[in-house]
Amino acid sequence: MGRVALRQRAVWQDQSGPKATTAEQQFFAVFKNEFQNTPLRMDVKPRDFINMYLNVPLDPNEAAEIYNPLKPINRHGIIPEGAIRNIDTKKSLYVELKRQDGWVEGGKRSDGRGNAHERLCKYFAPGLREVISKEAKLGDQVLPVWFVFLGNICCDPCRVREIRLWFGPYSDHVFFWRDPTNEESLLEHFYEKLQPLLW
Predict the structure, then answer these.
(1) What is the DSSP secondary-structure string of 3-52?
(2) Per the CB 3.0–4.6 Å rule, which of 68, 94, 155, 178 could disulfide with 80?
(3) Pair type for strands 82-86 and 174-176
């Protein structure tokens, strides 16, 4: 990617960031209100995995072949967007929100830029999934993450098909919040598809 293309990409990220923050705030507000006087709660930016990589053992030969900084690394992990927790059962469902541009009517196919949906595939990596499943207490056979998409990606004919194929049998863990003013659609999906996992 050339310098001009990189400069344009930075501008796109500047525009996308504030929109994503607003969408996240709206999502969390819906559940904060919904969970009042229930055993469910929504934690924003849970720190359950903030240091999950720090003590990953390496073969001594491999450890000798990589950069070992003089100052120890004191933080290395992931922070999901949220966690829906049942305080009675101690079970958790982690949440990833992804707002991304997409190809919609009147636009160009190149409008479907960004790789937020691709970055979510890390949650299918065996080691990462094992660590998150253990903390979630939902069982080894349950995907412990709910993926909520916002923005034009929700109507992009290419991206929607990619996501549906990739997530396959885990389609209940994917929600395209196409109309963020429709809180009921979001809540309906959660209660019908995912809330039973927390009991």
Answers:
(1) HHHHHHHHHHHHHHHHHHHHHHHHHHHHHHHHTTTSSEEEEES--TTTTT
(2) 94
(3) unpaired
Q: Is the pLDDT of residue 11 over 60?
A: no
Question: Domain extents for the chain?
Answer: 16-198
**25-52 residue pLDDT tens:** 999 999 999 999 999 999 999 999 999 9
Per the prediction, the chain carries an average pLDDT of 89
C-alpha of 37 from chain center: 26
Range 68-89 average pLDDT: 96
Cα separation, 177 vs 141, in Å, equals 26
Q: Are the C-beta atoms of residues 81 and 133 closer than 8 Å to each other?
A: no
